[in-house]
Amino acid sequence: MLIADLNGSRIDADMARRSGAYRCPVCKDEVILRRGRKVVAHFAHRPRASCIARTGETRAHLEAKRVLLDALRARGLQVEAEYATTEVAEDRRADIMVWSPSSKTPVAIELQHSRINVPDLEKRAQSFVRSGIAQLWVPFLDPGILDAADQIAPDILKVDRYPIQLHVLWMYGMVGEDGLWMYQPRARAFWRATLTDHMLMSKEALWYEMGAVKRYRQGGTRRSRRFRTLYLQGPWPADALRLNLFHRSADSSEWFNWPEGRLATFVPVAETECEENRDYYQSTKSRDAPSESRR
Ligand SMILES: [Zn+2]
């Protein structure tokens, strides 16, 4: 974790001194400050601690939080890492919570490194909605996935066979046509992702069943159940991105439920054409009215 409790106040590992009675804000156990050349400064539980705050805490996840926290803070925004909201169920604090300077709307940015099952995701999304918190889900690109990518334009990569992960599909459905933002740990950068069906070709075939019944199958294409084709545009470092708020309506599919509520997305600075509120601009763009331009 990046944030510990010191005498009742939150302290950032970057600001912490070696010695100090740091405590985990969740379980209140003592935690140890770790600093090294290869890992961002953080607080660690003792080896056998069974705290919920330890789950999913990888080096890449710590780094991702650090990168966003620093970029948003550098812009003068009110931002916190590992921010607990009393109303969000269980512990699971928001990885990053940032407040819109104009509307004061809190925005939770969730950097999803590990797989998470869809019912848990939906529960968490619902609790953000109930708490009036806008949400932005950012799954990680698996290591090696870009090794198999084709560069089809100067800033666009295509991964022809991207293995389907349900939580990624849910997040993609959540954000809709604006595209899903994904984080690449190696580059510490963000990509805008679009998923399309991966089509499989089947050849025309003629065979005899049981040695007698003539069977024929037309050639053609069908949709893969295991793969999608992933297009990635980018990469952008965190400081080249701005946040944009919008509203989506409830929707469901065979497998998924998406709540109605406010979402946030990143917008590359170059694409923001807003003059008056350059640092953080918003719109009331509705998912039902995609033609309405960003303001
Ligand atoms: Zn703990």
From TrEMBL:
Xref: Pfam families: CoiA_N, CoiA_nuc
The Competence protein CoiA-like N-terminal domain, residue ranges: 14-51
Ranges for domain Competence protein CoiA nuclease-like: 57-138
Membrane spanning stretches: none
Source organism superkingdom: Bacteria
Protein name: Competence protein CoiA
